[in-house]
Write a structure and sequence with these properties.
One of its GO terms (molecular function) is metallopeptidase activity. Belongs to the peptidase U62 family. InterPro entries: Metalloprtase-TldD/E_C (IPR045569), Metalloprtase-TldD/E_cen_dom (IPR045570), Metalloprtase-TldD/E_N (IPR002510), PmbA (IPR047657), TldD/PmbA_N (IPR035068), TldD/PmbA_sf (IPR036059). With 457 residues, the chain is α+β, with helices and mostly antiparallel strands. The protein has 2 domains: 12-237, PmbA/TldD superfamily (PmbA/TldD fold); 243-457, no CATH class. The chain contains 9 helices and 17 strands. It has helices at 12-32, 88-104, 141-157, 226-239, 257-271, 273-277, 338-344, 367-372, 422-427, and strands at residues 37-53, 56-74, 77-83, 162-181, 186-202, 209-217, 249-255, 298-300, 323-327, 330-331, 358-360, 376-384, 394-405, 408-421, 429-432, 442-443, 447-455. The longest helix has 21 residues, at 12-32. The two termini are 42 Å apart. 43% of the residues are buried.
Length: 457
């Protein structure tokens, strides 16, 4: 899909410099108010969101937001305040409020900025890299409406069994942010996100089924064509019609790529610092232990071009690095910011604010190849509910998808439950496909787990 037109004069660097100037002034005020350490976040966001349904426009929303957050430390007492008003009087009041809060809070031995020697260093050209993540799309409302209408209409026209629509939407956003602290660190980032999606309804009465498809990209030129998205939404909805029965039992389960990454998400939740120091994780003291098969690996790659979470530094200014989270099936480290690291007696992993582009290594072909390796089992394409116990690892969620017989799709299934324990599920991963879903910072293909309980509704 081609971008509609070239961007007008790009003033993003000038806007970043303006935000950096605000951050520096705020840090000076924090020092003047008695703060021993301080950090400031400044952000600016612009966006356009359009929604249509059944050929009519439902929403057109243009957004433009700016805001600041100030955190001060007086010794090891912490106070934070924020504002969306960037007038000087409001900025001054925000600093005063943060300092006032800090004076009345309890001391926390883990409080404070990340260590000064961990700060990322500005490249020699004086600009932070954006890893090809800045691609403004000068989309006006009329153009966005046309794209959404074309997407929905293509889906509705592609199959007579499509009887209704939940609509199509277009999203377009630009984000600028600056983080600065009293170590002397000042880092600026910019990024764009563009999306187009459609949800359709197939069938009639109690037999209706809903599904959809969407594209999410950094650069509009990488987006799937509107008609292709609409047709894919229709195909997914009609494929779910006339679901058949499932006999309760224990079977292999194949997770489609967008469902497979939820398993990685559960791993991240269990190895994050907050869950660990609160002792609310089933993976306490698991670093250095074998959690997955020996061939399994997950690598964090913060410098990927056009990556959805590429960054040279984390939310505390700590330099990011490419490193293994899992290698040879062994959990190599946790996911820590400076506060959680201190609580655990460890060091920050450069993950304040989250992980930066995880790649799950494949050892198999695409989704059809993984299905072909199942004599009798389940393909999961949707998950419902929140039935995951992060303390025990017990897993039970509603699901829908397709029943597999003899390595082929036999019929759709709906209203079932899949259950297991995440430790056993991780150990039981038999294959990860090469069919990576690019619409996330967790880059993962389809995944086959050898043994789970499947129960009919």
């Amino acid at each position: 899909m081609n971008e509609i037109s070239l961007a007008a004069a790009d003033d993003s660097q000038a806007r970043l410099e303006q935000l950096a100037g605000i951050a520096q002034r705020l840090l000076d005020r924090c020092r003047a108010q008695g703060a021993t350490q301080a950090e400031v976040s400044c952000s600016e966001d612009r966006g356009l969101n359009v929604g249509v349904r059944l050929g009519s426009v439902e929403t057109v929303e243009s957004t433009r937001d700016r805001g600041i957050g100030v955190t001060v430390y007086i010794g090891q007492k912490k106070g934070s305040a924020s504002s969306g008003d960037l007038r000087e009087s409001s900025l001054h009041a925000t600093v005063e409020q943060a300092c006032s809060i800090a004076r009345y809070t309890e001391e926390d031995p883990a409080a404070g900025l990340a260590d000064a020697d961990r700060m990322a260093r500005l490249p020699g050209d004086g600009r932070w890299p954006d890893f090809d993540g800045w691609h403004p799309w000068p989309l006006d409302p009329a153009q966005a409406i046309d794209l959404a209408l074309a997407c929905e209409q293509a889906g509705r026209d592609s199959d007579a069994r499509i009887t209704n629509s939940d609509g199509a939407s277009v999203g377009n956003s630009e984000s600028l942010s600056v983080y600065a602290n009293s170590h002397g660190f000042v880092g600026g980032e910019r990024g764009t996100r563009h999306s187009l999606g459609c949800a359709l309804i197939a069938g009639k009465g109690e037999g209706m089924q809903r599904d959809g498809w969407y594209s999410l990209v950094v650069a509009a030129g990488d987006m799937e064509a509107p008609a292709a998205i609409g047709r894919q939404a229709a195909q997914r909805a009609t494929a779910r019609l006339d679901p058949g029965p499932v006999a309760t039992g224990t079977y292999p389960v194949v997770f489609a790529p967008d469902m497979a990454r939820t398993l990685v998400g559960h791993l991240l939740g269990a190895v994050s610092g907050g869950a660990l120091y609160r002792r609310a994780s089933f993976l306490l003291d698991a670093a250095g232990t074998q959690l997955f098969p020996e061939w399994f690996s997950i690598i964090e790659r913060p410098f990927l071009p056009r990556g959805l979470r590429s960054a040279a530094f984390d939310a505390e200014g700590v330099a990011t690095t490419e490193s293994a989270l899992v290698d040879g099936g062994v959990l190599r480290r946790y996911v820590l910011g400076s506060y959680s690291a201190r609580k655990l007696g460890l060091h920050s992993t450069g993950n304040a604010g989250g992980v930066h582009n995880l790649e799950v290594a494949a050892n198999a072909g695409d989704l059809p190849a993984l299905v072909a390796g199942v004599e009798r089992g389940l393909l999961v394409t949707q998950l419902m509910g929140q039935g995951v116990n992060t303390v025990t690892g017990d897993y039970s969620r509603g699901a829908s998808g397709f029943w597999i017989e003899g390595g082929r799709i036999a019929h759709p299934v709906d209203g079932i439950t899949i259950a297991g324990n995440l430790r056993a599920m991780f150990q039981g991963i038999e294959a990860v496909g090469s069919d990576v879903d690019p619409r996330s910072h967790i880059l993962c293909g389809s995944m086959r787990v050898g043994r789970m309980t499947v129960a009919s509704g």
